[in-house]
Amino acid sequence: MRKQERRAWICLLLVVALLSGIGLFTYRFIKSGGEWATFYGNSQIYTDGVINRGTITDRYGEELLQCTPDGFNYSSDYETRVATVHAVGDPYGNVSDGAISSFKSQLIGYDILNGTYDTTANGKKIALTIDANANRTAYEALAGRTGAVGVYNWKTGEIVCMVSTPTFDPAYDPEASADGDSSYFFNNFIDGLLTPGSTFKLVTSAAVIDNMDDREAFRFECDGTNQVNEREDSSLSDVIVHGEVNFREALAKSCNGAFGALTREVGAKTMAKYAEKAGLTEPVEIDGIKTAAGSFDFPDDNEVKLSWAGIGQADDLVNPCAMMVYMGAIANGGEPVQPTLIRSATFLKELTGGKSLGRYLDSDTAAELKDMMKYNVTENYGEWNFEGMDMYAKSGTAEAGSDSPDAWFVGFTDDADAPYAFVVWVKGGGFGSEVAAPIAARVIRSLGTAEE
Ligand SMILES: [Zn+2]
Predict the structure, then answer these.
(1) 118 found inside a domain
(2) pLDDT, position 296
(3) In a domain, 182, yes or no
(4) ∠25-27-31 over CA atoms, to 5°?
(5) What is the pLDDT of residue 43?
(6) Are 212 and 258 in contact (CB under 8 A)?
(7) Distance (Å) from CA 163 to ligand 1 centroid
(8) What's the number of domains the chain is made of?
(9) CB of 277 closer than 8 Å to CB of 206
(10) Are 148 and 431 contacting, i.e. CB atoms less than 8 angstroms apart?
(11) Which residue range is the domain that position 1 belongs to?
(12) Cα 429 to ligand 1 centre (Å)
């Protein structure tokens, strides 16, 4: 009897071990099956280590790349190739976040029930969210300068334009052999960490709105030099003398002296909290692709450096995609939508919107910022530059060490059929409102002009 009882226990233990083994396998299969199937040793789906099936198109079905056993067939149009290569990828995998590598399992047509089984061996067609025509427009508008243009629909999360320059031709010069410079492969929009300049005043403004109840009474007398203390090297100089400005005018005129004063009033701790709240210190996730994470230093024992950090200089570094998402947060009542690069379930997505990234700002704070960004446009940038668009924006002219400052323009449009948040950065471009703003206007105007 005792012996039988022991055997029963042993059997039970074996059953438990077997079941937990199956459980573990199933879990790992679901979690990593795609990786196992797309493993480079799987000769069926690779020719000479390069994926040999699958087609990548833009959002309207324009073919950007066909992967075949004979190699990659890119678009026959040069401009399309160079303007979309950072989104699509290249044969050697030099572009680290291209669709070829990031969406490999979708391209092969892997699914959990059938594995990589595919009767045609052609793989799947995946449509990216980008509009190839808008990418070409952005590439043309950057006109040979180093830069980045990113635009996304702040309701659905779809990235409709993503261009980074310098760029290269993946079909005829995949190794960008001209001078062996790796910057050709770098996607400034996803991997860039840049000095934000005055675009960061939109973060400082959020801190002011939430923490200064008396902000309506704020006045600053800008003398153009704006010395913080007695020391001569403590000036927050402006290109022009702004005279007396209130909070709203300080943003529209982008007065460094006033924003330095506002930053000191808000304090180091609160500034650090708001850079974090704006999502600028964490990577943004785009269908598994992670952007670079920005960083800041707001010292509480150095009021000059703190002031500079509050106007987007000092050690401030932002990622352009994260900045675009922050614009999406202001546009969407404080709650941004997660960006995506794969177009799918479009009808439902358009009805319900994209996935929320949580609350970045109170809705009242977002509304006040939105109102101030409209004032920037009417008072400073000129509505006539954005004819036919309901534009909200902030320019930036960032000193980033080179001879000429970097030009920025960030913001969003709030038209029913064009809810776009955007970021434009031009290295060494000069003044943001003169250089980067027209690029934003041109790209947004080009969106959706291709046939659906
Ligand atoms: Zn000023």
Answers:
(1) no
(2) 98
(3) no
(4) 115
(5) 58
(6) no
(7) 33
(8) 2
(9) yes
(10) no
(11) 1-37
(12) 22
Tell me, in angstroms, the distance from the centre of ligand 1 to residue 379's CA.
15
Q: Can you state the percent helix, strand and coil of the chain, rounding each to 5?
A: 40, 20, 40
Amino acid 17 reads A
Q: How far is the CA of 246 from the centre of ligand 1 (A)?
A: 11
Q: Give the domain CATH number at 429.
A: 3.40.710.10
Q: Is residue 360 part of a domain?
A: yes
Find the 258 Cα to ligand 1 centroid distance in Å: 6
CB distance 73 to 128 below 8 Å: no
- The one-character DSSP state at 354 is S
Query: Do 316 and 274 form a contact (C-beta atoms < 8 A)?
Result: no
From the CA of 244, how far away is ligand 1's center (Å)?
Answer: 9
CA distance 31 to 29: 5
CA of 249 to the centre of ligand 1 (A): 10
440 is a domain residue? yes
Distances 62 to 84, 152, 337, 441 between C-alpha atoms, Å: 12, 19, 26, 23
Residue matched to tokens 């324009």: 62
> If you measure from the C-alpha of residue 257 to the centroid of ligand 1, how many angstroms do you get, rounded to a whole number?
5
For 9, 278, 360, 440, the CA distances from 262, given in Å and listed in that order, are 73, 18, 21, 29
Q: Alpha carbon of 360 to those of 31, 148, 226, 353: distances in Å?
A: 30, 24, 32, 17
By C-alpha distance, which of 87, 84, 81, 47 is closest to 67? 47
| Predicted pLDDT of residue 36 | 63
Quote the DSSP letter at residue 284. Answer: P
From ligand 1's centre to the CA of 225, what distance in Å?
A: 8
The Cα–Cα gap between 58 and 10 comes to 59
Distance from Cα 250 to the centre of ligand 1, integer Å:
7
Q: How far is the CA of 240 from the centre of ligand 1 (A)?
A: 7
Task: Please give the average pLDDT of every successive group of 10 residues along the chain, which has 452 residues.
Answer: 83 89 79 64 67 90 93 96 97 90 80 56 85 98 97 96 97 78 92 98 98 97 91 86 98 97 98 98 96 98 97 97 98 97 67 84 98 97 94 95 91 95 96 95 88 48
CA of 265 to the centre of ligand 1 (A): 17
